[in-house]
Structure formats: structure tokens, C-alpha cells
Amino acid sequence: MLRLYATVAAGGFRRHATYRVATAAGVFTNTVFGFILSYTYIALWDERPQLGGYSMDDALAYVWIGQALITVCGLMGGGFEDELIERIRTGDIAVDLYRPADLQAWWFSANLGRSAYQLLGRGVVPMAVGALVFDFTLPSGPGTWLAFLVAVALGSTVSFAIWYLVAMSAFWLLDGQGVVQVAWLGGLFFSGMLLPLNVFPGALGELARVLPWASMLQVPADVYLGKYEGWRGLAGAYAFQGCWAVVLFGAGRAAQAAATRKVVVQGG
Amino acid sequence: MAEALRTSRDSRRAYPLVSDSWRTYRMVAGMWIRSTMTYRSSFALTLVTSFCVTFFDFVVILLMFGQVRGLGGFSFAEVALLYGTTGTSFGLADLTMGSLQRMGKRVRDGSLDTFLMRPAPLLAQVAADKFALRRFGRVAQGLLVLVWALVLLDVAWTPVKVLLLPVMLVSGAVIFAAVMVLGASALFWMQDAAEVTSSFTYGGNTLLQYPPTIFAQELVRGVVFVVPLAFVNWLPALYVLGRPAPAGVPGWAVFASPLVAAVCCGVAGIAWRAGIRSYRSTGS
């Protein structure tokens, strides 16, 4: 069974690796946005050094981590939900449900392959360009890089769980666009994509830091910047991400079970 | 198939009448609006989120000004003016031409052929394809911030400055629209390159929300002389605010937005025609 999912994951990787022009275009766009955001952050941190506990170099690293993780952690759309929703809308999902594999595990594996490709294809280059031009904070050692990668993997898992749940709504609504937009909006704002969550003021900041979206960018970035002290701090961060992953996976399963029991698949 | 395509293309005017394009655009857009209204609740949600997405974008600037009193020497009201002008212009362009970025899919799967067979201007058909009325949310939000900025601003208004505002909004929208058409033209050759256009449209919109003083001088010169996005709002807005134009930019440039918009349209038109001519369908 595990071999099947490994094959699906490899397929996901290869499928996205086929679109080289799209990858190059994505890298270009991420780099351009990285530049624009960097200058706005420089202006902001010029006025308020140490804002949110970040030095200017930390803030610049944060910008480029965000650009590198956009597709990996589904900060602006999970990258698979449109396809899944379309299958639900057209009724093709019936074929998927007949397969001797679990629907959620199937899509998770495919998404894992996609994320891995996006990390290599779209993450590394913008990060390197940003580091060369802006000379921002780099992790203190290989251990921190490794810890960062683990946090990214967990963040990508939470992202999958959220987008899967979003896609499940299409069983009831058929046109998933509205829910996708809402999820997109929530993700964009509460992941810290627009502004680091530790710069958010008061209660809004506290709320934002405990919502699941915090696991997708803020936590990995803080791991990268070494903001968690010692093993205990790091374990706490992973536990936060892990808990949300488990809860949201469970919710996705429940929605899937309810949908396949009650909903009549679209014919046509 | 290729034969049929050629005759249909040759029988069409090289320069379609504006009235033809407008009629086509209205018909196709109207069809998509009726189709969207089938799922009313979903439409209401998307309209609200479209408004909110752009509003959250502005919340970031509000949050920034919660921490600082000025960005690059610009006050909140001044940044809001920049935000409102580019937001409205970009919103108008996105509402009318935003569908162009998805044309790559039609080139790849060959469904563009259907469009070429119809006796109607291609650009109008593709631009109105999947017309999304929800994108009006962005225009509404941009206008709202603009009005807010105008209330807050302490500017000595002259007739020229008052006139410059609507000119700036319209020229800005035309410049953004031309960039979108230019980007779509490239899709005839590279179907997957749509994101490059985003970095000039969405990216340009983000860039123009902030004062030019915070960016590197080379970057500012780039959007004045290479991709003339600075004419969308930076240059005219600097005049309205009574601030000097960026170094190396002639003084009359603040009034040149309509001219630049016209030139952009010309370039985009040439690129579009070159794109159509090189279109070879998928062959399957």
C-alpha cells in the first residue's frame, strides 16, 4: 500500500516538473515580488528597528522565505484544490472513489510530490537571489536548516489539510469558487504572507499566531531565524503544527465520510 | 481545419471596428454574467471576498502605519492616495481584461480555434471570456480608499490637479490593460508564461501603492523608462501632492500619462497581431 502512495507522490513530482516554462515564470514573479516587498520592509524597519523582535536582516529573510514557500506551503492556493473541485463538480470523483485507495491519502501523496518539486524548482532560486542582493540572515548551521525543512514539511501538511477540507465543500456547494476565495483570503492574511504575524498588534496578533495558518509561514520562518530556544522551544513549534495537522486531517476525513455517504454524485 | 481558419481570418478586417469589438465584448460578458448568476450564493461570496482580498491588502498598510508615522517621508493620506489611484486603475483593467491571463490554456488545448472561427474580433472574445463581475469588488475598494485619501489630504487644489485625477485613473487603467494584452500576446508562443505578466500587473499594482522614495533608484527608473508603470499614478500623483518628480525625469512627464497609455496600446496591438499570426493550433 505504501508503495502505491510513493508512486503517486513520485507522479506528482514528475507531473509538475514537466512544466518548465511555468516554473521559470513562477521564479521570475516570486523574485520580482521579493524585491518589491523587501523595499517596503526596509522602509518600515528603517523607521522602527527591531519591530516585532526582528532585525532588518531577519525581516528581509522573512520576505524571501515567504516568496520561496508560496507554492510549497500553499499560501496563495494549495495548487490541487481546483482540480479536485472540478472532479467533484463533473462527477469524475466517482471514478476516484472506486479506486482501491483512500481518497485523502491519494491526494496527500500527489500533493507531497508537488510540494517537493516546488521547493526545489521554485523555492531555491528566489531565496538565493534574495540572499545575494540583500545579504539577509542565514541559519546558524546545518542543524537549523534541517529544523527548518521539518517545519516546512509540517507546514505543507497543514496547508494540504486545509485545502482538502475546502475542496470537500464542493460536494455540497458544487461551485467551490466562493469557499476557495474565502480560504485564499484567510490564508493570505493569517499566514503572515503580507506582514509577519509578530508585527500584528494586540489581540489580532495573538489570534493570528494560534490559527492553523501560522504553521505555514510564520513558524517555519521563526525556526529558520532561530527564534525558538533550545529543543523545548523547537518541540513546542512542531507540536503546534502537528496538532493542527491532525485536527484538520480529521475534519477532512469526517467531511469526506459524510459526503460519500449522503451526497449523490453529479451525473451527466 | 487550417484552411478554414485561414479563410475566416482573412475575411476579417485587419483592424476590427471599435463598435464591433464593443458589441462582441458586451455579448460574451453578458452571457458569463448570466451564467454566474446561476450560483447566486457563490457569486455573493466571491464578490464580498474580492472586496475583502483587496481590503486586507490595505489593512497591511494600516498595520504599518500603526507602527510608524511615515513611510519614505510620505504620510498616511499620501500613501492612501497612491493606493487608491493604482487600486482603482488596476481594478478597472482587471475587471475588463483580467481573463486574458488564462488564455494560455486555450492556446494549449486548441480551444482558441473555436474563437477564431467566429466572425467577431478575437481580442474582445478572449478578454470577455469567463467575464467575472466579482472583480468589481477591487474597483469599489480602490475608489473607497481614494475617497478616504481625498478627505484626509491637505492639498492646495488647482483646476489642473482636479482634472489630473480622472485622467490619471483612466490612463492608468489603459496602461495596465495594455500590459495585460502584451502579456497575453506572449502566451501564443509560451502558454505557461502567464505568471510573468502577473509580476508586472499585480506586482506593479503593489509597487505603485508605496512611495517611489523607498525603492532603489534603478527600480524607479525602470518603471519610468522601460515598463512605464510610473505613469499610472506615481508621476501625476507626485504633482498633485506638490512633490518633485524622481531624479532624471523631465517635468512635463507628470502630464504625459495619456500619451504613454496611447503608446502602450499601440505596442500591445502590434504584439497581439504578431501573436495571432504565429498561432498554429495544436494540430490534433
From TrEMBL, chain A:
| Membrane spanning stretches | 21-42, 62-80, 119-138, 144-166, 178-197, 233-252
Q: Which InterPro entries match?
A: ABC-2_transporter-like (IPR010390)
Q: Which domain of life is it from?
A: Bacteria
Q: Which UniProt keywords apply?
A: Membrane, Transmembrane, Transmembrane helix
PANTHER family found in the cross-reference section: INTEGRAL MEMBRANE PROTEIN, SLR1174 PROTEIN-RELATED
What this protein is called in its record is ABC transporter permease
Organism of provenance: Streptomyces gardneri
UniProtKB/TrEMBL annotation, chain B:
- Alphabetically list the UniProt keywords: Membrane, Transmembrane, Transmembrane helix
Pfam family of the protein (one) = ABC2_membrane_6
The answer to whether UniProt assigns keyword Transmembrane helix to this entry is yes
| Taxonomy, superkingdom | Bacteria
* Membrane spanning residue stretches: 43-65, 71-93, 139-157, 163-189, 219-240, 252-272
Protein name in the entry: Transporter
Organism lineage string: Bacteria, Bacillati, Actinomycetota, Actinomycetes, Kitasatosporales
